[in-house]
Design brief:
single chain, mainly alpha, 15 helices
Amino acid sequence: MNYIVLKLVGYLRLMRPANLLTAVADILAGVAVAGYLKTQFSSYLDMLPLACLCLATLGLYGGGVVFNDVMDARLDAAERPERPIPSGVISRTQAVILGVYLLLVGILAAFTVSMASGILGIAIALSALGYDRWGKHHDFWGPLNMGLCRGLNLLLGISILPGVLQSFWWLSAVPVIYIAAITMISRGEVHGGSNRALRLAVLLYALVLSTILLISWRNGHLLPTLPFVALTAFIIFRPLMVAIREPIGPNIGKAVKGGILALIVINAAWAAAFADWQYALIILVLLPVSMLLARAFSVT
């Protein structure tokens, strides 16, 4: 393979392209929760804050996962030698430079929208680095730490209208629970997992989906939200049930992959619960793109 192409593919693998789209879906869902499209969207110029928030989340998520590989380089040399850093495709120094660049782009892009967005951008960067360095090594705090990154990312989308944050800050608890479940499952991805953790993940998933349905019912949007919640349940529970029957590494890896890809559908469900089903479908279009990317690039 050509040297430049090899490097480019290595950098892309570090940034987990399929996962990046799930971060963009968080922003689009947050914008729907804020009611931005109904109250503020009147011309193409109003797309600019939305575009800046999408750029911000791409930088923040990308930087976070790049530093994940930087800090896991020694462990990956033994467990995942095919990854870009241990395989020698990307040096550790090159990965650090890329990670710093992405995080700075993410924070600066967030500040162009509002002070609240910028502060959330800094909080996401610190939370991601905290997870990469310390959080992932703790059975209890690790899943919460990773969930916090997603919860803050949803708030970053809501911050397109900073005043709305006061009304919906508590929604960030839902992605915290969901991501905590995925992170808990992923602990057994390499060496196999425990049935106890997988069954607990089922309960956490059910809690998340029930909460979305309850909120959609309160907003009078239950019927448009139902198909998106049902699709989410299909994507996450099918591989998880297989993993519970046989908790070996490959099965758990598929359960983790399903949980990550379903993030886009969950965000579509948020959009249906707060805005309308047409906007939710726009978010859902990201799913097949993410699935195609997941075939070419690892999501974990």
